[in-house]
Amino acid sequence: GYTASDSLSRVQDSGRFGIDLIAQDLRRAGYLGMNNKIRNDAGSLLIGGTSGMATTAATCATGDTTFARMVGRPLFGLDDTNTGLACIPDEDYLRGDILVTRYASADPVGVEGVAHSGKTYLDNAPYLRTGMMEAKIFIGSERANTDNGLAERPTNDHALQAYAYYVGDTDRSCQGQAIPALYRETLDSNGVPHAEELVPGVENLQAQYGVEGRYFDADEVTDWSAVSSVRLWLLIRAECPEAGYNDAETYALGNVDFTPTADTPEARYRRRLFSSVVAMRNRL
């Protein structure tokens, strides 16, 4: 009937959009303009500036731009937990893995503090000024500070991007049942993380990470710079249960298997499982 076909159509559209959105960010992860390979003898990135790099950690602070400035960790994940991510409190996190990506915007905002036509620097947002041999991180209001200057030419200024994808509760319901969704922490105009709802009906997000031909869960990865690909799974359901429908299928998402409990509301949803393998383009 119409209800079933309409539900399946919405589920299909949501699944494709969610997978494509995460995949695009994964392919961009680690892009730092012209200076992707600036390192010291120990292999660490060398990026200064009035803001500078933040210490690499599996954390997400609140109220500052630390999350965006951890450019030494362009990719990491958490396995079925939000531990350490203060920007995703327990009341917002529902279930599944959390996937984090960081990179510089592909389209420069300006050159040495001078905005391109139609572009604007935000005073408190983080930026990366990059040449071939050096780079600086600063907030927009400090773009003219001499400590952020580069000796080489040409140079470009890129907005720093940082995202943390997860499944959360929308605080909406249908027929008395809570509606989950795919969310991500993104940066506001001050470079501070805040939640953004992306796709309603997402029940679970799982990811595994490819290292030397094998895939590992997040808590098994010891060197995130060695990850060459990511396997993704999104389990999507209709926003509303369907009377008389019974979903008895088992869905395999990496290290998680889910089978709806028979004769309960969770078995009355139309579902689809979406998956993809994404190659990392900008390994750090």
Radius of gyration: 21 Å
The count of helical stretches stands at: 2
Overall geometry comes to elongated
Order of helices and strands: HHEEEEEEEEEEEEEEE
Helix percent reads 10-25%
Strand fraction: 35-45%
N- to C-terminal distance:
50 Å
Note the main sheet.
Answer: 7 strands, antiparallel
Mean pLDDT: 92
- Which stretches are poorly predicted, pLDDT < 50 over at least 5 residues? none
Say what oligomer this is. single chain
Structural class: mainly beta
Please tally the β strands and state the result: 15
Characterise this structure.
The protein is built from 2 helices and 15 strands. With about 280 residues, it is mainly beta. Strands 1, 2, 5, 6, 7, 8 and 9 form a 7-stranded antiparallel β-sheet that branches. A 4-stranded antiparallel β-sheet has the order 11-10-12-15, covered by helices on one side. The protein has a two-stranded antiparallel ribbon with strand order 3-4. The longest helix has 27 residues, at about 1-30. It is elongated. The chain starts with a helix and ends in a 5-residue tail after the last strand.
